[in-house]
Amino acid sequence: MCGIVGFTNRKIQAAPVLLEGLSRLEYRGYDSAGIAVRDQDKDTVVVRAKGRLKILEEKTNSGLSVPGTCGIGHTRWATHGEPSETNAHPHVTEDMNVVGVHNGIIENFSELKDKLEKNGYTFYSQTDTEVAVKLVDYYYKKYQGGPIDALAKTMVRVRGSYALAIMFKDYPGEIYVARKDSPMIVGLGEDEAYVASDVPAILKYTRTVYYVENLEMARLEPGKATFYDLNGDEVKKDTVQIEWDAESAEKGGFEHFMMKEIHEQPVAIRDTMNSVLTPDGHIDLSSTGLTEEQIRNFKNVTIVACGSAWHVGMASQYVFEDLVRMPVRVELASEFRYRNPILGEGDLVIIISQSGETADSLAALREAKDLGATTLGIVNVVGSSIAREADHVFYTLAGPEIAVATTKAYSAQLIAMDILAMEFAYLRGKMDEKKLLCMTAEMRTLPDKIQQLIEDKERIQWFASKFANAQDVFFIGRGLDYAICLEGSLKMKEISYIHSEAYAAGELKHGTISLIEDGILVIGVMTQNDLYEKTLSNMVEVKSRGAYLAGITNYGHYEIEDTVNFNVYIPKTDPHFSATLAVIPLQLTGYYLAVARGLDVDKPRNLAKSVTVE
Ligand code: M6R
Description:
Layout: E1 3-9, H1 14-23, E2 32-38, E3 45-50, H2 53-59, E4 70-76, E5 91-92, E6 98-106, H3 109-118, H4 128-143, H5 147-157, E7 160-168, E8 175-180, E9 185-189, E10 192-196, E11 208-211, E12 216-221, E13 224-228, E14 234-235, E15 240-241, H6 246-250, H7 257-263, H8 265-274, H9 292-297, E16 300-305, H10 307-324, E17 328-332, H11 333-336, E18 347-353, H12 359-370, E19 374-379, H13 385-389, E20 392-395, H14 408-427, H15 433-443, H16 446-455, H17 457-465, E21 472-477, H18 480-496, E22 499-504, E23 521-526, H19 532-543, E24 548-554, E25 566-570, H20 578-596
Parallel strand pairs: 16-17, 16-18, 18-19, 19-20, 21-22, 21-23, 23-24, 24-25
Antiparallel strand pairs: 1-4, 1-10, 2-3, 2-4, 5-6, 6-7, 7-8, 8-12, 9-10, 9-11, 11-15, 12-13, 13-14
Helix pairs in contact: 3-4, 4-5, 8-14, 8-16, 10-14, 10-18, 14-15, 16-20, 17-20, 18-20
The protein binds 5-amino-5-deoxy-1-O-phosphono-D-mannitol (M6R).
5-amino-5-deoxy-1-O-phosphono-D-mannitol binds next to helix 10 and helix 18.
């Protein structure tokens, strides 16, 4: 995720402080960086670099070649536009009147860009940030009400999430900030003021901070911060003392990145869906480059991926086939590439990959292209190999994922695939407009439902603590629930090192049931109402052989409490979306088991975050 640092004072050079602050945010992942520094009344100097922060440090002689006591800095994780020096922040207006950095996503940036173009603005980058900066400039010049007025007018016009730090030519030594749904803090030192997207960036300099609230703005001067609401009225607030050490600050106060990322899922899926859902509830896939005609004409869909991304494919197969009524195959990339697949024109091959660099998935993509299929990458990392080589890309907007065990990227991929299935169904005449609008409206409720499930995590912690010494665990489910079980089982294996297997519940009797003995934990996922009773019967079968049962089902199936020893209820939703909800308690179970066993949750043994070898 992008990072912001800003600093103003009267004596100390700002650039080295900005670079130091940005280095504290490197763990979050980024693809380019930049700083803008102002020396008194002189023009602001902007330096940007693609790649590691080291390159920016070299370009600026560790900040020494950019004199000035006031500045802003940014590490960028690309969302709009590839990683490049041009797209890196800070962004500027032509006359350098406004210079700014931004975290978050401006959803209506193309509409705002059109408006600005009509008013004579031109654009040099592909970013939504340049649009935001120029919109501030537009309001600043048009209404001449000063920086806070221009920022407030911008905030009313933009949709999406943002943390903005801006410098105005007419206000040397000052930094202006605004925030909505993207974190931002302001720090104070003696005759110094700081702004940052995250605590670690400024922890070395100050522990006295203000939290900028949603839809609030602030004006920073050396040693002083003044806060404003959207009306431009001053807001009084108290400072908070940060007690965290640097390491826990990086994790946002969570013990592990995995837990932080579990908590980031509502935002990850909201951002992903908002990138393609229109305000009136339709779907606009134009950012992927796929045309409506192409979508109407594909004959088959093949989904290729590895690990959890393959599990997303397995879940999507049920959703796609059910909604679109077209054949969908799901393939492990490592198998697909070596088995001479039968593909050609009319085939759509979807490659799902968080990193966009997984060697087998990349090879499968190349194979599919060679055979004449159209390829679509569902990718989280902008500018990654799969994103560059696929014919079309649907970016998941989960932000950088640091824990090896994927959580938020998996959930964002599920949402992306659900959206694709809905649009395919709609354009191919398998879903009417009423149903589409009903499903997109329901989809918008998922972030809150996920939040609700995460808030109940203590119950799962208690449950997991009972099984810290388990040797084997089985997950069973049917249909879409089986696909969720695959992910639940992998989460458990990879971080808690407990052997586990996911089984299609109806397959148990064909061999695996012989492994069930006293005390073995069997987790049943039963969110598909039409299959609920069948899986419940399979649960009863293993119970009678001594298994301890945990059940995950929808609110309303309260009779399950007569059968299982522990249960989690999932908020009601469209059955096609239930994977997105049911996976949350499974992620939490894997996590708490690993913690209870004292394991390195974020870096499990033998595993790498990005598997770039076969
Ligand atoms: O970057 P990718 O999505 O292509 O990675 C695929 C798998 O390596 C990945 O999902 C892996 O299974 C995770 N460790 C699961 O948590």
